[in-house]
Amino acid sequence: MRGFLTLLARNRLALVGLIVIGCVALLALITPLLPLANPNVIDTPNRFQPPFSAGAVLGTDHLGRDLLSRLLWGTRLSLAMGLAAAMIAATIGSAIGIIAGYYGGRTDNVIMRGVDMLMGFPYILLALAIVAALGPGLMNALIAVAAVNVPFFARNIRGITVGIAHKEFVDAARLSGMRNRDIILSEVLPNVLPVIVIAMSTTVGWMILETAGLSFLGLGSQPPQADLGSMLGEARSALITHPHTSIVPGAMILVIVMGINLLGDGVRDALDPRLKSGALSRPMPATTVDRHGPVPTARTDSLLDIVGLRTEFRVRDRVYKAVGGVDLHVEQGECLGIIGESGSGKSVTALSVMGLVASPPGVITGGAVHFDGTDLIGAPYEVLRALRGRRVAYIFQDPLATLHPLYKVGDQLIEAIQTHDPLSKEAARIRAIDLLKSVRIPNAESRIDSYPYEMSGGMRQRVGIAMALANDPDVIIADEPTTALDVTVQAQILSVLSDLRRERGLAIIFITHDFGVVGQLCDRVAVMYAGQIVEEGPTEAVLRNPHHPYTSRLIDCVPTLGGGQRKLAAIPGLPPVVDRLPVGCAFAERCDKADPTCRADAIALMPTGAGRKTRCLFPETKQERIV
Amino acid sequence: MTGYILKRLVSAIPVLLGISVIVFLIMAMIPGDPATAILGSYATPENVEKLNRDLGLDQGLVPRYFIWLGHMVQGDFGRSFALNRPVLDEVLDRFGATLILAGTSFVLCSLLGVAAGVVSAARQYGWADKAITFVVLVGISIPSFFLGMMMILIFAVQLRWFPVSGMWPIYGDRTLWVLLDHLFMPALALAVVATGVIARLARSAMLEVLRQDFIRTARAKGVREGRVIWRHALRAAMVSIIPVLGIQAGFVLSGAVYIEMVFQWPGVGRMLVDAILKRDILLVQGGVVFIAACYVMFNIMVDVAQAMLDPRIKT
Ligand code: SF4
């Protein structure tokens, strides 16, 4: 509750709302004590006095009554009506909701049917029908507004009650022989009360508006008594000649409702936990780049050369260094594996290449990605976009989530083709069918008109691969493309990929946590841990003779191809949280060879044999492996 | 699809019956003798007796309901004694005006609301987002009847851009242009609140969708950002926006009552208010049932639109 209040106070607009509402409510409370003119004394000779005239600060209305006094009394009445309606609706609605939710079954069914029916009415029809039956008048308008809002409370509170009715403490109370009525009063009610209060606070503005509306139509408060709505209604005939009589009550309604809305928004924001973490930000078209210092130049003339890449996530006041200075390169036609546990930074590295890291919160803070003479990190968005999918394409993990659910797969393929190639729709469709055939989808001609949800996981991933191939890219970055699939399908997908690679001379960066997959497909492998590369070398050499203790652990826990997530548990301990990285070796916590020198200082990636590099002070030797 | 539409139409029957029961029960709350209440100042003994016979008012609630329902099914909504004409004729006459006003408003608020929400989400935290958020806040806080009055004051009286009120000029031709001229202000005033609500919802629906993986896929394909937003993201967001459009249609219809009063628009809403003040019970009852039934039909259209948009809904 305290946290909630501070959060509310931190929201400046909500605070403004609270102050406005507080002031209006205070004024309404003390109205009888103020030295005001009688709001109902008619003084026709002095009618339509303009504001700021002697004796009437806000002027007078069409009967010469003091507007300020009428405004305050009217506000008082409007607030009281709105509050009363909210209380009545909340009480009756909550009672219905609790009964429906608590008893469930047929009771629930019948009640909720009726509630749904009532909610199917445009609310004013119902209110008008009630007023028509009971006759115009303040109390009847109040009843009508309350009645119209009963279903809203009934439905909300029922939802909450259903959740509570099956909790252990309610079951316990039932078993102990408590009567239902007592359980509802002593166990259920206290738990739903906060929800009722919140629902009330968010609807009270609405009810003030509705009662004012009925009064405006002449169906609510009757003369001489006036609330804000009927003041406005009476002033309407003099709108053109004496607008101030309309503006005064109307502006007051606006102020009240706006204040309540501001406050309500603040309450909602404070209650919505997703907003606290800032997760509701939408990612920008390309990852934000905030690079300082000189841009590292390309080291080699590789097709793709990643140099000193740093990517971090900035969430509130914390910084998660997901990628902390990664160097990698891929040659034409080569397959590079990047392996590591989840959270090691391997995916973020891959997504950084084309600026696809969600941003906010992702920021690329250093390094360069040289591709065909261009530094992609510093490249303007248009350059990046033109290269995306055409020269560097991605295959993602879960094709059900990564394909658009509402478009046919064919249309998504055709779009991929047409984005970079001004083909006619027919020509693109023919090419799309060819692509589907090339990833060995049977009946490609009919499958092209399927929606993703109509396909199996393996078929969907083939579509994902076909889409990546659409523009004959030079590099394909595959981010755990087989993780969501079962073992046989996984093997099929891998064989499709390795055939395509041979046929087309594709360079592939293959990201996985599975050494079995790496062994099948990759020429070279880079092992990542806590945002850094800890070992790199030719796949066979690394597999046969790992140098880094972490690598050897990873290899040890791969019994066969594709063991799924299970094997991760085989390494004791967890990777360090990347917002609190240790000074020395990040693996020290989990390494049995760890030594004070390991923790003393940052460790460099050192050459350890032909084409191999390792980030460890005490690399593994063959003897240790055999033991 | 036709099968689905038929299925939805059939499922509307119990809802319509439910509505008739609710209206009937509300009207049964009228204190005193129903025939006298219905006839008001026309309540001569002969009239009362005739009405009792026609509507079965001297019988119990249940037979009365079925007599009433039977008449309605045959298109007989009773007779307005104040206007001395059949209720259905009067309602149908007025309904066109309401349909034009509320329909225009609904189109306006859907287009403006969705567009504002999309822009707001795409430019999250930018000046456009902030401006839209502020305008939306004011929009959903201002009572439509007050807004309408202020619009009359500024745009009709001060600036003389639009006529003050009414649907047609007293003299002159009834051309489309004249109608649009009269329609613009009330339709806009009516649309404002719903626009705000829809914009808010569209913004959060878009933010939700833009974080999803398939948006990243579209960007990875190199699709232009405009297309990513307006095609990929909006299409997916519409799945959660459309049901709210249906709900907002109900609010537009409700708001029409106020706007018709403010702008002297000859629609059903004004007819209902006048009828209540004149205690013309049968006219109120018929009008309410008719509009509620239309709203049910409209919601079926919303469901059908949703099914056409989302192939995952089994049709
Ligand atoms: S540097 Fe030390 S702690 Fe780190 S992996 Fe090597 S031996 Fe283990």
UniProtKB/TrEMBL annotation, chain A:
**Recorded family membership:** Belongs to the ABC transporter superfamily. Belongs to the binding-protein-dependent transport system permease family.
Compartments it resides in: Cell inner membrane; Cell membrane
Per the record, GO CC terms?
Answer: plasma membrane
NCBIfam families in the record, alphabetically?
A: oligo_HPY
Q: How does it sit in the membrane?
A: Peripheral membrane protein; Multi-pass membrane protein
User: By its UniProt entry, which SUPFAM superfamilies does this protein fall under?
Assistant: MetI-like, P-loop containing nucleoside triphosphate hydrolases
Transmembrane residues, as ranges?
12-37, 79-103, 123-148, 188-209, 246-264
Q: What is this protein called?
A: Peptide/nickel transport system permease protein
GO terms of molecular function? ATP binding; ATP hydrolysis activity
Enumerate the UniProt keywords alphabetically: ATP-binding, Cell membrane, Membrane, Nucleotide-binding, Transmembrane, Transmembrane helix, Transport
Q: What is its main location?
A: membrane
Instruction: Identify the Pfam families for this entry.
Output: ABC_tran, BPD_transp_1, oligo_HPY, OppC_N
The chain positions of domain ABC transporter read: 307-555
Annotated ABC transmembrane type-1 domain ranges read 75-264
Record InterPro entries: AAA+_ATPase (IPR003593), ABC_Ni/Peptide_Import (IPR050388), ABC_transporter-like_ATP-bd (IPR003439), ABC_transporter-like_CS (IPR017871), MetI-like (IPR000515), MetI-like_sf (IPR035906), Oligopep_ABC_C (IPR013563), OppC_N (IPR025966)
Top-rank taxon, per record:
Bacteria
| Alphabetized SMART domains for the sequence | AAA
Q: Is the keyword Mitochondrion assigned to this protein? A: no
What Gene Ontology terms for biological process does this UniProt record contain?
A: peptide transport; transmembrane transport
From TrEMBL, chain B:
Q: Which ranges does the record mark as transmembrane?
A: 12-30, 95-119, 131-156, 176-202, 236-261, 281-302
- Where would I find the ABC transmembrane type-1 domain in this sequence? 95-301
The GO cellular component terms are: plasma membrane
CDD domains in the cross-refs: TM_PBP2
Q: How does it sit in the membrane?
A: Multi-pass membrane protein
- What is one process in the GO biological process aspect for this record? transmembrane transport
* PROSITE patterns in UniProt: ABC_TM1
The alphabetical list of record keywords is: Cell membrane, Membrane, Transmembrane, Transmembrane helix, Transport
State whether keyword Transport applies.
yes
Q: Which InterPro entries match?
A: BPD_transp_1_N (IPR045621), MetI-like (IPR000515), MetI-like_sf (IPR035906)
Query: Where is this chain's protein located in or outside the cell?
Result: Cell membrane
Q: Hey, which family's this protein in?
A: Belongs to the binding-protein-dependent transport system permease family.
PANTHER family linked? DIPEPTIDE TRANSPORT SYSTEM PERMEASE PROTEIN DPPB-RELATED
> Which protein is depicted?
Peptide/nickel transport system permease protein
Q: Which organism is it from?
A: Celeribacter baekdonensis
User: Which taxonomic lineage is given here?
Assistant: Bacteria, Pseudomonadati, Pseudomonadota, Alphaproteobacteria, Rhodobacterales
